[in-house]
């Protein structure tokens, strides 16, 4: 094994509750000047691996074997590792917005790493946070801005080891470019090493020198633009819809016109906070509309949802973006998927169970999960259960709100393939996303900016 | 902010006084019946009610009572016939000494227990278990255990805490058991409330991130945990003090300590309504003043309060 | 896995035995709990396993018979207060509005109110047990309401509630079928918490002589009766205290377990 500096990690083993080993944690050698990307499906242990390397695992996780060498020196766990983290590393965690001290201003947060205020301000500007935002506290910043402040904090002291966990997850593509530039600037500098965890393939491809894959390799089928099935009748027609924020004066979205045909997939693309979710939720009847109307196969959709007759409820199904709360933690999967069957389709118990199993198989899950509760499922699995639940109603229109945002590429591909397959049966899909790669798979892409939908 | 806290305290006292008055007066069985213990005829009762103003409308009697309280006139005890203010004034010093001594023990104990219990080390978990248990068992259990050990087995203190007859302040041996019986559950209850706050703050993402970034422990405690703990800790202290004042009744009855709480309990058993009303209002004033003090200190120490 | 389940089963058995003894222990009493049998505060032996009390009655029999009133009072108070609080919390969490904010403020203030004082004031006109129930409801129901209301507010916009709304289900049905199961563990822990507090109040009122009339046995009253004999017969003082402690700790542990279950991440 080489002893030429950089970061060397070997033989890591982490145990969790009850002494069970967590994941398969690969060895790694990052030479000075390198940018190494860690990829793999969610739940493969990337974040745990990072915490283990840093000796920052939280109970019940515990590192029980393995060595970490930095510039040839073994970093002993405990206080030595803490001082090493403080002096030699810059760390950006997932959910970066929550990692900022709520009472510190942006510039004070960055300066906490030991740099002076002017260096902190420069770094903030480098990641696209201009001076007007420097005195703000985290609650006065948007999610993307806060993520960039946290990134600036990680970068400011020019740490020899930079660790970025999903640095672009809350960013639009322009901001992601700035992050890519900041990482690329470190490339080749013999004093520094950069580790990077990301689901964003384009980002990884542009900045990383090499890639370490965690867990089983993702089935790297590149997203194939699916053939559009024979054009069907118009399922959804939206006419001049206006949506307001609760209590707000300016409209969130106005004069929204759109149609979705049977078997068609239409994507609504826009940055977070632009009103994609509200648009989809209001079509599902969960958010009031202030003007305009919508028709489903020629029938006016009433608002709010409780005024909709059963047939319309069944025909429009909404799947939300948060895998954590999409399923009731108290209900078994069979109950969750079976509920629409009971409500909309009068089948007996045995028939219902058979249908539930068929639906679970169809979304790529083992029917054995039917007896489990959501607590035992990963985010991707829960999202697929939510899709199965929506499909159980046999809808004509599926409103899919960022359903792949929390998923790794392999799960994303499966879920998108599934949507494509269902369209062949005439299902109309309206999908909201901030990810151009997802939007690419749609037949048409509509973008939101300036409170309006553009064709 | 300060004005709001003051207004709230005054409104709270008015509300408490209405509730105390309603609970003690508006229910069946009035003072006239209580005083005559069923031996008077209806005519005698009516005469008595007219003489003492009991036949007036409830709200008028409430206003008269409240006005009397503000003047320092709490009426006359139905049992002893002495002015309530005198009866209470005579008992107040003993209870004040007891509650004061107990608070002096409670505050350091509460802080000493809350910190390790909130941090979650193995020793901390043991402290947490002891604290939770002490706070959960009824106070008589703590008092009985202390008595069995210190008065029964070790015979350090007398099991009954009789006050000196000549009005001298009570000595340590008399105060020891009642004070500990008050302070241990109060400190445990306070530590339990604080422990949750400490654990909550320590688990916040920005504190975990600070640990991950390798900031030293003292800096995390001072910058990331401390500022968020001051205001709730003061409020916890006010709550604990209020509970401690009420709990003096249990301890005084248990140890035969002739204080205000014992007086109040006797008055409840004898339906001596004016004494109960005055005693309850006095305790309520103490509790509300404690909360007000906590509010005022919170405003002074945390100008960014609007943020959280 | 089997060890965990076994431990849980063992604990459930233990908790059931404790409650059973507290309620029906008098059936096992070797002597009449109210009959004097010998000299006051005599040590154990001679047919009195735990000795005799201040009036020469059998301590063991009195301990076995002395928990019923306390347990029933505290149980009734806990169930009434928790039921009101849970029902109110479901409604307040579902309908966000001025009422829910008002209840929030009220709960804040009541946290600081010494319940013992409220119970004492009620005890002027009400029997002791009713005063305990009234004070527990006044002081405890708003707290339960706030805790349950907060939990409901957290899940009100969850994906599974949206899905139920999308199936056209009515508010009461969603509350009963989606939200109540999701917050059930929390509701259980609230009943436990109210019981522990109500037991403290009931014990205090029994100590004050506002519980069962003498010579009926009552743990709390027994402690007071035997405190001056602490040196002669510690068992007469300690036994009822242990019984009271075991009862309240058992319920507290059950409640804490439910609360831990409720706090598990989704």
Count of discrete structural domains of chain C: 1
Rounded to an integer in angstroms, the radius of gyration calculated over CA atoms of chain A is: 24 Å
Largest sheet of chain C: none
Helix run count of chain C: 11
Can you characterise this structure?
The complex is a heterotrimer of chains A (455), B (308) and C (266). Chain A is an alpha/beta fold and 455 residues long. Helix content of chain A is 31%, strand content 23%. In chain A, helix 10 (333-344) packs parallel to helix 12 and helix 11 packs across helix 12. Chain A is globular, with a radius of gyration of 24 Å. Chain A starts with 6 loop residues before the first strand and ends with a strand. Residues 217-227 of chain A have low confidence and may be disordered. With 308 residues, chain B is an all-alpha fold. Chain B has a single domain (91-307), classed as Orthogonal Bundle (MetI-like fold), CATH 1.10.3720. In chain B, helix 1 packs antiparallel against helix 13 (273-301), helix 11 crosses helix 12 and helix 11 runs antiparallel to helix 13 (273-301). The longest helix of chain B has 36 residues, at 84-119. Chain B starts with a helix and ends in a 7-residue tail after the last helix. The relative contact order of chain B is 0.14. Residues 303-308 of chain B have low confidence and may be disordered. Chain C has one domain: MetI-like fold. Chain C has eleven helices and no strands. In chain C, helix 2 runs parallel beside helix 11 (234-263) and helix 3 runs parallel beside helix 6. The longest helix of chain C is centred in the C-terminal third of the chain and has 30 residues, at 234-263. The mean pLDDT of chain C is 85. The chains are: A alpha/beta (455), B mainly alpha (308), C mainly alpha (266). Chains B and C meet through helix 1, helix 6, helix 7, helix 11 and helix 12 of B and helix 4, helix 5, helix 9, helix 10 and helix 11 of C.
Top keywords for this entry?
heterotrimer, A: 455 residues, alpha/beta, six-stranded mixed sheet, five-stranded parallel sheet, 23% strand, globular, B: 308 residues, mainly alpha, MetI-like fold
Summary?
The complex is a heterotrimer of chains A (455), B (308) and C (266). With 455 residues, chain A is an alpha/beta fold. Chain A contains 14 helices and 19 strands.
């Amino acid at each position: 094994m080489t002893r030429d500096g950089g970061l060397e990690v070997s033989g890591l083993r982490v145990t969790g509750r009850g002494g069970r080993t967590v994941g398969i944690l690969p060895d790694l050698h990052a030479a000075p000047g390198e940018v190494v990307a860690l990829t793999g499906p969610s739940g493969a242990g990337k974040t745990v691996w990072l915490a283990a390397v840093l000796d920052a695992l939280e109970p019940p996780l515990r590192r029980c074997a393995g060595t970490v060498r930095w510039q040839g020196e073994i970093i002993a766990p405990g206080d030595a590792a803490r001082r090493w983290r403080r002096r030699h590393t810059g760390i950006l965690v997932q959910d970066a917005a929550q990692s900022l001290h709520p009472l510190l201003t942006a510039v004070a947060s960055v300066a906490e790493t030991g740099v002076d205020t002017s260096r902190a301000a420069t770094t903030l500007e480098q990641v696209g946070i201009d001076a007007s935002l420097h005195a703000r506290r985290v609650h006065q910043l948007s999610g993307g801005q806060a993520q960039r402040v946290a990134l600036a904090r990680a970068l400011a002291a020019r740490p020899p080891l930079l660790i970025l966990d999903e640095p672009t997850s809350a960013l639009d593509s322009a901001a992601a470019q700035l992050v890519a530039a900041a990482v690329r600037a470190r490339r080749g500098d013999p004093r520094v090493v950069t580790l990077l965890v990301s689901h964003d393939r384009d980002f990884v491809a542009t900045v990383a020198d090499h890639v370490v894959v965690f867990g089983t390799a993702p089935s790297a089928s590149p997203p194939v633009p699916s053939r559009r099935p024979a054009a069907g009748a118009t399922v959804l027609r939206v006419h001049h819809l206006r949506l307001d924020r609760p209590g707000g004066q300016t409209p969130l979205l106005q004069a929204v016109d759109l149609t979705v045909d049977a078997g068609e997939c239409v994507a609504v693309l826009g940055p977070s906070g632009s009103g994609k979710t509200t648009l989809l939720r209001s079509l599902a009847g969960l958010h009031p509309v202030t003007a305009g109307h919508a028709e489903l196969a020629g029938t006016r959709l009433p608002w709010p949802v409780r005024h909709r007759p059963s047939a319309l409820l069944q025909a429009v199904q909404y799947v939300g973006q948060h895998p954590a709360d999409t399923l009731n933690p108290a209900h078994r999967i069979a109950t969750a998927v079976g509920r629409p069957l009971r409500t909309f389709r009068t089948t007996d118990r045995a028939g219902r169970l058979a249908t539930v199993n068929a639906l679970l198989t169809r979304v790529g899950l083992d029917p054995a999960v039917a007896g489990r509760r959501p607590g035992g499922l990963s985010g991707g699995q829960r999202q697929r259960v939510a899709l199965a639940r929506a499909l159980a109603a046999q809808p004509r229109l599926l409103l899919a709100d960022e359903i792949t945002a929390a998923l790794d590429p392999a799960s994303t591909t499966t879920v998108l393939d599934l949507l494509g397959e269902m369209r062949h049966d005439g299902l109309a899909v309206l999908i909201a996303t901030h990810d151009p790669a997802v939007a690419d798979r749609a037949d048409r892409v509509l973008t939101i900016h300036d409170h309006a939908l553009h064709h | 902010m300060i004005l709001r806290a003051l207004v709230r305290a005054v409104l709270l006292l008015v509300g408490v006084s209405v509730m105390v008055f309603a609970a003690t007066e508006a229910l069946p069985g009035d003072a006239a019946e209580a005083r005559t213990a069923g031996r008077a005829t209806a005519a005698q009762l009516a005469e008595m009610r007219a003489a003492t103003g009991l036949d007036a409308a409830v709200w008028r009697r409430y206003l008269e009572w409240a006005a009397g309280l503000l003047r320092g006139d709490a009426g006359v005890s139905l049992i002893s016939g002495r002015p309530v203010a005198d009866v209470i004034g005579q008992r107040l010093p003993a209870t004040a000494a007891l509650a004061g001594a107990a608070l002096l023990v409670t505050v350091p104990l509460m802080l000493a227990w809350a910190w390790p219990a909130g941090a979650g080390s193995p020793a901390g978990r043991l402290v947490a278990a002891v604290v939770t248990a002490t706070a959960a068992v009824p106070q008589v259990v703590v008092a009985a255990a202390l008595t069995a050990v210190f008065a029964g087995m070790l015979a350090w203190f007398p099991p009954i805490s009789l006050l000196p007859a000549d009005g001298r302040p009570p000595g340590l041996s008399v105060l020891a058991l009642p004070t500990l019986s008050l302070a241990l559950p109060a400190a445990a209850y306070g530590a339990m409330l604080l422990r949750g706050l400490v654990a909550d703050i320590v688990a916040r993402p920005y504190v975990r991130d600070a640990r991950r970034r390798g900031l030293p422990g003292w800096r995390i405690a001072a910058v990331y945990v401390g500022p968020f703990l001051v205001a709730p800790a003061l409020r916890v202290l006010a709550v604990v003090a209020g509970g401690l004042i009420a709990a003096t009744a249990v301890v005084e009855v248990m140890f035969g300590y002739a204080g205000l709480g014992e007086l109040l309990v006797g008055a409840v058993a004898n339906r001596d309504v004016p004494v109960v009303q005055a005693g309850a209002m006095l305790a309520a004033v103490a509790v509300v003043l404690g909360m007000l003090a906590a509010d005022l200190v919170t405003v002074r120490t945390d100008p960014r309060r609007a943020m959280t | 896995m089997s060890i965990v389940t076994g431990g849980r089963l063992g604990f459930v058995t233990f908790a059931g035995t404790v409650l059973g003894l507290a309620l029906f222990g008098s059936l096992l009493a070797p002597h009449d709990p109210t009959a004097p049998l010998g000299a006051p505060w005599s040590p154990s032996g001679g047919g009195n396993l735990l000795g005799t009390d201040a009036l020469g009655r059998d301590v063991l029999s009195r301990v076995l018979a002395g928990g019923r009133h306390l347990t029933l009072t505290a149980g009734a108070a806990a169930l009434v207060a928790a039921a009101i609080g849970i029902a109110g919390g479901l409604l307040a969490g579902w309908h966000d509005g001025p009422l829910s904010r008002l209840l929030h403020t009220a709960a804040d203030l009541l946290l600081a109110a010494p319940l013992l004082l409220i119970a004492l004031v009620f005890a002027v006109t009400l029997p002791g047990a009713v005063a305990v129930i009234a004070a527990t409801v006044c002081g405890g129901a708003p707290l339960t309401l706030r805790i349950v209301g907060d939990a409901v507010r957290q899940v009100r916009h969850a994906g599974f509630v949206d899905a139920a709304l999308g199936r056209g289900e009515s508010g009461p049905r969603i509350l009963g079928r989606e939200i109540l199961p999701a917050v059930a563990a929390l509701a259980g822990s609230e009943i436990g918490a109210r019981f522990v507090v109500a037991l403290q109040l009931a014990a205090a009122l029994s100590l004050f002589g506002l519980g069962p009339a003498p010579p009926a046995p009552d743990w709390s009253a027994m402690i007071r009766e035997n405190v001056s004999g602490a040196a002669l017969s510690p068992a007469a003082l300690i036994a009822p205290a242990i019984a009271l402690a075991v009862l309240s700790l058992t319920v507290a542990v059950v409640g804490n377990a439910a609360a831990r279950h409720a706090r598990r991440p989704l």
